[in-house]
Amino acid sequence: MAADPYATLGLSRGATDDEIKKAYRKLAKELHPDRNRDNPKAADRFAQVTGAYDLLTDKDKRARFDRGEIDADGNPTSPFGYGAGRAGAGGARAGAGGFDFGTDASDFGDIFEGLFGRAGGGGGFTSGFGGRRGAAPPLKGADVAYRLRVPFADAAALTPQRITLKDGKSIQLKLPAGVETGTQMRLGGKGEPGPGGAGDALVTIEVQPHPFFGRDGDHVLLDLPVSLKEAVLGAKVKVPTVEGPVMLNVPAASSSGRVLRLKGRGFHRKDGGRGDQLVTLLVDLPAEDPALAAFAREWDDSGRNPRGGLGV
User: Fold this and answer.
1) How does DSSP classify residue 2?
2) Is-contact 102 88, C-beta < 8 A?
């Protein structure tokens, strides 16, 4: 049986949704398998943390767990304290754009038959004390968990992603605004079949890092090298964005560290707006340029102290 989901995330039972999300993000970053390739225990702990997060962010399951109706694996609790189900987890990690999946399934028909005996003909069952009870409601199939790796630019632009479910069927998945690592999407009826209907597919998003883009909330960050001439005289330069290159006007006399803004080139927000791309200029000087060295020796800039703001 899994550990208490609150304890797994380091939370108390009264934790808010925001506290649960914050705790999961922190632990997921620390324990992610890609950051702990030499520590196999981290992968097990990562799976436990994700399982706890999945249960506590499902309002129905959380309420049932708090009332003692299900255990930390999501299995109904037995009337006499016995473990009431079986849990299995499996996974195969694919490359970029791939995902991991695992299942948790439970079958309680044999347990109830053994405890109460089966009534003939009517589909109900009788208690061991002679009283007849109504038929138990049919169980839904188990939910199936998937982890989908999404390229950074696709997450920012909300490019639909195609994934293959456990049954071999491929579907097109529309990403939600505000998507980030840890975002979970529920696909109704895409889980394991069961007498009460199919369970759901739970897709947890993992936004992959980018070689030169970064992220700050809804904003995309980019360090942009510019030549000395472009910085001094100003220029129009081509700049990459998550949706392709655009032209950017670099003002004259731009120093390294100056931040320019490309409006509406960031991540989509849940309110329908969109963040910006923040471009930080970095003046890139050539190595061992005789003409530039000669110019600097002749140029008199002694009347200005560029470090005056630092008190030196």
Assistant:
1) P
2) yes
Cβ neighbours of residue 64 closer than 8 Å, sequence gap 6 or more:
70
Measured between its terminal Cα atoms, the distance across the chain in Å is: 63
Exposure of 281 by Cβ count < 10 A (0-12 exposed, 13-18 middle, 19+ buried)?
buried
DSSP 131-157: -EEPPPPPPPPPPEEEEEEE-HHHHHH
Token readout for 22 is 């914050």
Distance CA 154, CA 160 (A): 8
Residue with tokens 């999946």: 101
Pairing assessment for the beta strands 213-216 and 219-227 based on DSSP bridges: antiparallel
In whole angstroms, what is the distance from residue 135 CA to residue 126 CA? 9
One digit per residue, the tens of pLDDT, for the chain of length 312 reads 568 999 999 999 889 999 999 999 999 888 887 788 788 788 888 888 898 898 899 999 999 999 888 888 888 875 544 444 333 333 333 333 444 444 343 343 443 344 334 444 444 444 444 444 556 688 888 899 999 999 999 999 999 999 999 888 899 999 999 999 999 999 999 999 988 899 999 999 999 999 999 999 999 999 999 999 999 999 999 999 999 999 999 999 999 999 999 999 999 999 999 999 999 999 999 888 888 888 888 888 878 888 888 888
How far is residue 201's CA from residue 190's CA, in Å, rounded to a whole number? 5
Please list the alpha-helical segments (H only) found in 37-174: 40-56, 59-66, 109-116, 152-157
Q: Which of 205, 206, 245 is nearest to 222 (CA)?
A: 245
Cα four-point dihedral sign 15, 20, 23, 28? positive
The Cα–Cα gap between 136 and 129 comes to: 17
